[in-house]
Amino acid sequence: MITVYVKRPHEQAEKLDIADTSSLSDLVDGDFEVVADDHLEGISLIVNEDGRGVLGNNFPITSDGYLDWVYGPCVFVKADGRSLTEEDISRIDRFLAAKV
Length: 100
Description:
Layout: E1 2-7, E2 14-18, H1 24-27, E3 33-35, E4 43-47, E5 57-63, E6 66-71, E7 74-78, H2 86-99
Antiparallel strand pairs: 1-2, 1-7, 3-4, 4-7, 5-6
């Protein structure tokens, strides 16, 4: 099991345990892309790029200094493939709180 953190538009983020990465497509409602935010070192964001402009926007990110938006569900995962720790989740919560 891998612990991930799922943030859907207009909802609180929730911690989930998934069996493997095949569950990620279900969590983001389709094919996924891996992105990162400059302020969350070691954390990757799994998003559905096909949702851009179609799904509700979720929160802004800064990638390589450029502002962008995450649309639809977003799954936060540890960049090295391991489970998120409580400290990682706390960092993500602070990150999300700053975006509201």
